[in-house]
Every structure is written in structure tokens, then in C-alpha cells.
Design a protein that fits this description.
Layout: H1 6-18, E1 24-35, E2 39-47, E3 54-58, E4 61-66, E5 78-81, E6 87-89, E7 98-102, E8 108-112, E9 118-124, E10 129-132, E11 137-139, E12 141-144, H2 155-165, E13 171-176, E14 188-189, E15 194-203, E16 207-208, E17 217-218, E18 228-229, E19 232-238, E20 247-251, H3 254-263, H4 271-274, E21 280-286, E22 296-305, E23 308-316, E24 332-338, E25 343-347, E26 353-358
Parallel strand pairs: 1-15, 7-16, 23-25
Antiparallel strand pairs: 1-2, 2-5, 2-6, 3-4, 3-14, 4-5, 7-8, 8-11, 9-10, 9-13, 10-12, 13-15, 17-19, 18-22, 19-24, 20-21, 21-24, 22-23, 25-26
């Protein structure tokens, strides 16, 4: 009598097909972002076994893993997930965890909300990062590279996340206790040899009182043929102007400058600015309303020709797929130039007209 073994072979083949091997040395790290940004950012580390492609299950969903793609969050040792540098999921909406304000002295006032469990707080003005000296009360800040030291983030992850969040105005980032996160740990199959997660609360639009300085003069590159190159001083910049349309305005008198600062959403003009108005013109450049964070405007050059200022600006915008705060913003910058002017033209760094604004608030 012959014994049929085909069903057994089919059964074992089926069982083998249901077993997911995944990459070797599989490790999974994730950052759970709440508040201004609601995203779960997952890095998958490892090396494909026996080929250029493998797969894992993340949260019960099969994800294809390949050699890492390019991008700001693509890190050494990680694999691309479904063709992207990281795996993304939305996080649960949570209540505000803290409030932060920055005083003219450069000190910060931090107030955690009732029930919030914070282990650290970071701050960025959109250009550099500070780690605050405490999570409550009046504290100072120390320069730091990105979000270095935040939760269980590796130094590379902390730098990458910090870089992604730059250029979005004044932000505070609070590190949340891992036991207080509203989202459960991500299920991973096969089980990773290491699983780390860090919860961060993003607080956008941190209130900053204008610093009591007159700014530092900058010497730009010539931008307009035939024009006289001028030095300029950046007085302040931000992302919460009351002006919702793009344009520029000039002002020279104290009342006009106060009005310009008010349109930028600032409550007062620093004394160092007011005392240096004689013989100078203040220019406000407004980018207009934008649907998310990640937009910015910066002056890179100023020239003058027959009483008209030509201001060269660099406009920043979030890259596709980048992390952005989900709040309406209106970026602006305010500069001071020597001389008296009543007209201003804005151009981009190629010399092409960006927008034209005139201001007669004098």
C-alpha cells in the first residue's frame, strides 16, 4: 500500500509560508508625537536575510522592507518601509500638556498642565535648539544639538527629528513619561530584539516677547544690478503675524513702527529699536497665511536705487513627507536699513519679483 504524503507536504509548506522571518537583528524604535504634530514615526533597523527585500508586520499590517531610501529621517542601519524612510501612523489626539513663554531676558516660564508627566522640555526658535533646565517654573536654556537626550531616542534619531522640526517658528517639545502615552506599544512580528519608544508633545507658537536688543547688522551679497548694496539688521521674525496676505511694508516713525510690530503680532517695540529709528527705515516682510508649519521667510540681501529698496528674500517651505505642525501660520521678518525709503520691492534669490508692497505708515 502506498501512503500519500502530498497533504502533509502541503500542510508544512503552508505553515512555513505563514512564518515571517523578517530581517536579521530586527530592532524597532518609534517616536510618538502629540499636540501640534500627530504622528507615530517608526524606524526599522536590521539587514534583509537572503536578498534585497524582506517584510515584517507592524500593527498587524505587512510592510515591505528594502535598502534605505533617502530623506531627512533616513538613518544609518535602518531599512525603508514600503519605500519610505520611516513607517508613519497617526497618534491619538490628547489634551495640551504644558504652556511655555519666553521672557525678554531669555528665561522661560514653564507650566505643566494638571496630570502631565514630563521628564524634559526643549525649545527652538526655528533655527537652533535649547534644552531647558527644568520642566516647571522659571528656567534657562542650554544649546543642544536637536533633541539630544530626549527619552530613548538615539543621538541620530534625536538630531534627525530636531532637524525636521526646525523652520516652523517657536516650538516647545516636552518629553512625556512612557507610562502616560495614550497609544499602546506597536505590535511587531517577528518580535524584535529591541523595541524602544519615546513620547513627545509638540507645543507650537510659543509666546516670545521681543528681545531688548537692536539686532546684529549683516552685510548681504549684492542682489540688484545697478543698486547700492546696504547693510541690514534683522530685528525679529516669527510665524504668527496678524497679516494674512503676502507683501512688505516700510515705516520710519515710532508710531508707524509700533503699528508694524502690532501687525506682526507683537505687543511692543524694544527700546533698543525705538532709540535707533533716526535716519533708518524699518521694513516688515510678510509671507501670508499658510495651512501648516514649516514655512519661513528670511532676508538675504538689500539694495537701494533711486529711493526704492529691493529686498531679496529666501522663502522656506516644508519638504514633501516632512513633519509639520498642523496649525495655521503667517511667517514674517522685520529688518532695519540705513536711510529713509518709502517704497520696497521683494525679489527671490534669482532676482524674480516675489510680491510688491508699499507702506506709507510714517
Amino acid at each position: 500500500m502506498k501512503t500519500k504524503v502530498v497533504p502533509f507536504l502541503l500542510l508544512t509548506a503552508g505553515l512555513s509560508a505563514c512564518t515571517m522571518s523578517g530581517p536579521s537583528n530586527l530592532r524597532v524604535h518609534e517616536a510618538l508625537l502629540y499636540g501640534g504634530t500627530q504622528e507615530r514615526v517608526v524606524w526599522v533597523y536590521g539587514a534583509p536575510q537572503g536578498g534585497a527585500q524582506t517584510s515584517v508586520k507592524l500593527g498587524g499590517v505587512t510592510a515591505d522592507l528594502r535598502a534605505q531610501a533617502s530623506g531627512g529621517l533616513a538613518l544609518p542601519g535602518t531599512l525603508s518601509v514600503n519605500g519610505q524612510a520611516t513607517y508613519r501612523l497617526p497618534t491619538t489626539v490628547t489634551a495640551q500638556k504644558l504652556s511655555v513663554t519666553r521672557a525678554p531676558s531669555g528665561l522661560f516660564s514653564v507650566t505643566p498642565q494638571p496630570g502631565a508627566s514630563l521628564s524634559a522640555v526643549y525649545y527652538t526658535d526655528g533655527r537652533t535648539w535649547l534644552k531647558l533646565s527644568g520642566v516647571q517654573g522659571t528656567v534657562s536654556g542650554t544649546p543642544v544639538e536637536g533633541l539630544t537626550g530626549a527619552g530613548s531616542l538615539t543621538p541620530e534619531e534625536a538630531r534627525a527629528l530636531g532637524s525636521e522640526l526646525l523652520g516652523q517658528g517657536n516650538l516647545a517639545v516636552a518629553v512625556l513619561s512612557s507610562t502616560s502615552l495614550p497609544d499602546a506599544p506597536l505590535t511587531v512580528e517577528p518580535a524584535p530584539s529591541e523595541y524602544l519608544r519615546t513620547g513627545l508633545y509638540i507645543l507650537p507658537n510659543v509666546a516670545v516677547t521681543a528681545l531688548p536688543t537692536g539686532g546684529t547688522p549683516s552685510t548681504p551679497t549684492p542682489t540688484t544690478p545697478g543698486g547700492t548694496r546696504l547693510t541690514f539688521t534683522e530685528l525679529t521674525s516669527g510665524t504668527q503675524a496678524r497679516v494674512t496676505t503676502a507683501g512688505a511694508q516700510v515705516a520710519s516713525g515710532a508710531a508707524a513702527v509700533a503699528s508694524l510690530y502690532a501687525q506682526a503680532g507683537l505687543s511692543s517695540v524694544p527700546a533698543a529699536v525705538t532709540s535707533a529709528l533716526s535716519g533708518n527705515t524699518v521694513v516688515g516682510i510678510f509671507l501670508g497665511q499658510r495651512a501648516t508649519g514649516g514655512y519661513s521667510v528670511r532676508v538675504t540681501g538689500v539694495s537701494a536705487n533711486t529711493g526704492t529698496l529691493t529686498v531679496t528674500v529666501r522663502v522656506g517651505a516644508p519638504a514633501e513627507g516632512s513633519l509639520t505642525t498642523q496649525v495655521i501660520t503667517s511667517p514674517y521678518t522685520i529688518i532695519r536699513v540705513p536711510g529713509t525709503y518709502t517704497r520696497v520691492t521683494l525679489v527671490d534669490e534669482r532676482g524674480q519679483p516675489l510680491t510688491t508692497g508699499t507702506g506709507n505708515d510714517r
